[in-house]
Design goal:
By secondary structure, this protein is an alpha/beta fold. The chain has 15 helices and 34 strands. About 30% of the residues lie in helices and about 25% in strands. The strands form 4 sheets. The protein has a 16-stranded parallel β-sheet that branches. The protein has a 10-stranded parallel β-sheet with strand order 9-12-14-16-19-22-25-28-31-34. Helix 15 links the parallel strand 6 and strand 7. Helix 4 crosses helix 6, helix 11 packs across helix 13 and helix 12 packs across helix 13. It is elongated and about 85 Å long.
């Protein structure tokens, strides 16, 4: 059968991850040689704030410090135990301070101290160990490299054998420990690791290492990339943890981008200045803004860190205004030192950018879920159920009457699977209404259909929590669904044949943390999913990875998925369609899923329009061929960016149209699509 494809005006945007091919510039870390010279000029001319920052740096730099290096550096969780870690961190920072002061003053005492510190550690350090080994290496590596880069390229008296010894430490102690990254940890870890690997790459002139770090910056799994860490709204992966870690994370990503920018690779501009968006969100919250967060935003450890100066100046020099970041930088500047000096570049070093203005959060699928603004009018005859009372009894009594059952705010603990009859509306009171499966109950699926022919059901304005707890924990990364601590599915509705279930609506619903599918529907006609948040569902638990998703629809017809958020399935897709017909997916955020953003198999008449499909690990959209392919597929006006594989992968599609999609940074190749008429079954 003839295969027909139409590709019109597919905009292939610049890929920031293109391989580094030009020679590295030296000095070339936080600043180039020209930047350092310009900074020195400003200091010596008495220009502010650089003159005062220089004076503070001099006052804080103790050249009489007795360097104590360790052979084995051990740092446990939260610094307990800490053997040599503080000394290493202090030594790295002092070496960088001394290198800068040497450059500005030409006082050899500063150069000699920096050299003594680097020689002491590179001649002694063998390894790191304990829980924070990678993190400590990542924190200190780029600081040491900045010091070494200045000393090495300014005739400071560092002997070649000493340079070789330092390089040996980087390549035999630091790099082997961090080269595989650690994306399963909170994202500040990989941000720091990327920062140090980029620094080591520049110092050692290793282009392959540099390219690998940039690729990880853009495409890493779990929490490891800038897109896994800073969401399209500006929220951070750690916003629910504490603000010190958030600022550390965005600061390390910005630090890596700062070195990359010196070398001609612009990671600041990607995805409409995503780093700037993260800074504005976090600075705004810390300065008192009312900020929306998916989950309870943390007020813990919320003092402003010294992480804002460079980011503010970088964007301001290009006409991009960050009012909250500027305000944060202004408040820190009177007591900052090194960060002020290293934030300065020569004006000529900035590349011209179009537009300007202020970064704007994505509105695609935002805000979704039970926290979305809602003015629903609950009927006067609604039945209210308080936590501790039986939702099942209320649903059974109102079955077939289209009466509303309202689950009042609080934790509704399910000791048995909740069975939904026909002709009911189950409504909550927003994010405060939580359905939670009793961990001791042994329930696999939280909510199922009471009969095979269930029909006329509305579920809205509540949260189904699939995790092991509803409590706010100190570190939410610790009990995420990819760790499979609980074993349960969310809403699992199954019929015996296509169209047996009818007219199902999900509105302002949040389903999160389920190890099996978050929402699975088989055999329904007339499905509406409106402004829902299906997040962090689908683990590797049996039957295995790539089979369980945030949303799985099988043998269903007449489907509308709109204005929703389908993110962060740890082993599956945001949306998986199998043998479905007449599907519309419109204005959804489909991001950070471990398989594809959207996977489609054996479907007909599917329209995928105006969605944000971002940072999915295998690829953006998969149109898969098994025994039969997909027919009449219309993919248009989507923003498909920074997925780790192709933006679109398609095999054996009949009558497929891909029009007016925008692509950026998908995979490591220039090609953003893999479109094949071949009836090929994927084998992996």
């Amino acid at each position: 059968m003839k295969k027909i494809f139409s590709f019109l005006l597919c905009c292939l945007l610049a890929n920031a991850g293109n391989a580094q091919t030009t020679p590295f510039v030296h000095p070339g870390m936080d600043q180039s040689g020209n930047d350092l010279a310009y900074m020195k000029q400003q200091v010596l001319a008495g220009a502010e704030p650089w003159k005062s920052a220089f004076e503070r740096l001099k006052a804080a730099t103790d050249t009489s410090y007795n360097v104590e290096a360790y052979t084995h550096v051990l740092r446990g969780p939260s610094g307990n135990p800490n053997i040599g870690g503080n000394e290493l961190s202090k030594g790295a920072g002092l070496a960088y301070n001394c290198a800068l002061l040497w450059y500005i003053t030409n006082d050899k005492a500063y150069a000699n101290k920096a050299i003594a510190i680097m020689n002491a550690w590179s001649g002694r350090l063998w390894d790191f160990d304990y829980n924070d080994a990678k993190l400590l290496a990542a924190w200190t590596g780029h600081v040491f490299c900045n010091a070494a880069e200045i000393i090495r390229h300014t005739n400071a008296g560092w002997q070649q054998k000493e340079v070789d010894q330092f390089t040996h430490m980087l390549m035999t102690v630091y790099y082997p420990l961090i080269r595989y990254y650690y994306p399963n940890a909170n994202g500040n870890w990989d941000a720091a690791i990327i920062h140090t690997i980029i620094a080591i790459a520049v110092f050692t002139d290793n282009h392959a290492m540099f390219d690998n770090a940039v690729d990880h910056f853009l495409h890493a799994p779990v929490n490891g990339s800038v897109f896994k860490y800073i969401y399209p709204s500006g929220q951070s992966q750690e916003s629910m943890r504490d603000q010190n870690h958030v600022q550390a994370g965005i600061g390390e990503f910005a630090g890596a981008a700062q070195i990359a920018y010196t070398q001609g690779t612009d990671l600041f501009a990607i995805a409409d200045n995503r780093i700037a968006l993260g800074y504005e969100y976090t600075a705004g919250f810390l300065l008192g803004d009312s900020t929306y967060c998916y989950g309870p935003i943390s007020y813990r450890v919320n003092a402003l860190r010294d992480d804002y100066e460079y980011v503010y100046r970088h964007y301001a020099a290009q006409g991009i205004y960050l009012p909250k970041t500027k305000k944060a930088a202004d408040s820190i500047r009177p007591r900052a030192a090194r960060s002020i000096l290293t934030a300065l570049r020569t004006p000529a070093s900035y590349r011209k950018v179009k537009g300007g203005g202020t970064p704007v959060a994505s509105t695609i699928g935002y805000i979704a879920g039970a926290g979305a603004p809602c003015d629903v009018k609950i009927p006067a005859n609604a039945v209210y159920v308080s936590p501790g009372q039986s939702l099942q009894d209320a649903l059974n009594k109102t079955a077939g009457t289209n009466t509303w059952v309202v689950a009042k705010k609080g934790i509704h603990t399910l000791t048995a699977t909740l069975k939904i009859p026909s002709g009911v509306t189950l409504c909550g009171e927003g994010v405060g209404t939580v359905l939670f499966v009793d961990p001791a109950s042994g329930i696999r699926d939280a909510v199922i259909n009471a009969t095979d022919d269930m029909h006329d059901v509305i579920i809205r304005d509540l949260v189904l929590e699939g995790s092991i707890t509803t409590d706010t924990v100190k570190d939410p990364n610790g009990n995420r669904s990819f760790k499979a601590l609980a074993k349960r599915g969310g809403f699992i509705f199954r019929a015996q044949h296509t169209g047996q279930m009818k007219r199902l609506q999900f509105i302002h619903l949040t389903v999160q943390g389920c190890t099996f599918n978050g929402v699975e529907i088989s055999g329904a006609d007339g499905i509406t999913i409106e402004r829902c948040n299906f997040n962090e569902n689908g683990s590797s638990i049996i039957p295995g990875p790539r089979l369980q998703h945030n949303l799985l629809l099988k043998h269903c017809t007449d489907i509308r998925i709109r204005n929703s958020r389908l993110d962060t399935s740890p082993f599956g897709s945001g949306i998986a369609l199998d043998q479905c017909r007449a599907v519309e997916i419109n204005s959804c955020e489909v991001a950070r899923n471990a398989w594809y953003g959207i996977s489609v198999a054996g479907c007909e008449k599917v329209a995928i329009k105006e969605n944000l499909i971002e940072a999915n690990d295998r690829g953006g959209l998969l149109l898969e061929y098994f025994y039969t392919g997909n027919k009449y597929i219309d993919v248009r006006k989507n923003l498909i960016q920074y997925n780790a594989g192709y933006g679109i992968t398609a095999y054996g599609v009949e009558n497929g149209t891909m029009q007016l999609n925008r692509y950026a940074g998908n995979g490591s190749n220039k090609a953003q699509e893999l479109i094949s008429p071949e009836q090929k079954v994927m084998m992996e």
